[in-house]
Design goal:
InterPro entries: Cu2_ascorb_mOase-like_C, Cu2_ascorb_mOase_CS-2, Cu2_monoox_C, DBH-like, PHM/PNGase_F_dom_sf
Distance between the termini: 53 Å
Largest sheet: 7 strands, mixed
Protein name: DOPO hydroxylase
Number of strands: 9
Helix content: 10-25%
Subcellular location: Cytoplasmic vesicle, Secretory vesicle membrane
Number of domains: 2
Membrane topology: Single-pass membrane protein
Order of helices and strands: EHEEEEEEHHHEEHHH
Oligomer: single chain
Pfam families: Cu2_monoox_C
Structural class: alpha+beta
Length: 311
């Protein structure tokens, strides 16, 4: 280890590192686990959006693989995004309900990132891109150490391909959906308007997710790339704004919880994407009456049908 520091005349520098030795071995080894979104272009933010939420999950499919029976105990957290991120939160979910906030920063800046000690230890039970390429993760510091080092998710790519097929058909665009076109190229070819952005938001909120569970050796746990439905959660987010503060935008969990109270659509169309002549009445575009809740619910129903590998 080498530490370089500039010596300034008439200044005293007391910085440095202290090393301690003890003959009594600690009870637990500490660990760092990365939570959030997989580094992948499938989780994209449409252009010129002022507020667009993305959510990553660490589900029981991962935690039950590696966590001890008593769970892990988080004592510190480092929220992390690149230049686009403005707010980050990590919450504990039990029985489909957000029950505890691990860390939250509603005024996040990529230029000020720190490891924050938690006010109390939080128990969780088993149950490298460039600066212009965005990410959303949280490095939690915990004990006892386990082999689970990375627990993140992304939208299932098969359902994302259905989104591209649907939006391009809606706009009558010619676009190759074969493997030769990368996800980045397909996003660049989308004709972005308020509807295509809203459908993408609904896709991220309701479509199945792919879980990634990596060991400390960077090797994935056997069968760790799992595709299943994203949790539909009750939110812990306060519904009343504090005095002198603007109300926070609803979380994905809050939006989904509110949508569950609505009657599901009665359309029985067998597959997605739909023919163009049926798509417009379904979403109420002719009358301009489509709402985010309607789009989200109907899109969820549509994406639930058919083989996601056949867009």
């Amino acid at each position: 280890m080498r530490i370089l520091r500039e010596v300034i005349k008439d200044r005293v520098d007391s910085s440095g590192i202290r090393l301690y030795y003890t003959s009594h071995l600690r009870k637990y080894d500490g660990g760092i686990m990365e939570l959030g979104l997989v580094y992948t272009p499938v989780m994209a933010i449409p252009p010129q959006e002022e507020n667009f939420e993305l959510t990553g999950y660490c589900t029981a499919k991962c935690t039950e693989t590696a966590l001890p029976q008593g769970g892990m105990h988080i004592f510190a957290s480092q929220l992390h995004t690149h230049l686009t991120g403005i707010a980050v939160r990590t919450v504990i979910v039990r029985e489909n309900q957000e029950v505890e906030i691990i860390n939250v920063d509603n005024h996040f800046s990529a230029h000020f990132q720190e490891i924050r000690m938690l006010n109390k230890v939080v128990t969780v039970l088993p149950g490298g891109f460039g600066i212009m390429e965005e990410m959303c993760v949280n490095y939690v510091h915990y004990y006892p150490h386990t082999e689970l080092e990375l627990c993140k998710s992304a939208v299932d790519n098969g359902y994302l391909q259905k989104y591209f097929a649907f939006i391009n058909r809606l706009h009558d665009d010619e676009m190759c959906h074969c493997p030769r076109a990368s996800v980045t190229e397909q996003f660049a070819a989308v004709s972005w308007d308020s509807f295509s952005k809203q459908v993408l938001r609904a896709l991220y909120d309701t479509a199945p997710i792919s879980m990634h569970c990596n060991q400390s050796s960077a090797i994935r746990f056997p069968g760790s790339i799992l595709t299943h439905t994203a949790p539909r959660l009750g939110s812990l987010q306060p519904s009343v704004a504090l005095a002198g503060h603007h109300a926070e935008p609803p979380t994905p969990a809050a939006r989904l919880a509110s949508q569950q109270t609505m009657a599901p659509p009665q359309d029985t169309t067998p597959s997605f994407p739909l023919p163009l002549q049926h798509t417009l009445p379904l979403f109420g575009l002719a009358q301009g009456a489509a709402t985010s809740s309607t789009v989200s619910l109907q899109l969820f129903e549509l994406l639930s049908w058919g083989d996601p590998q056949q867009p």
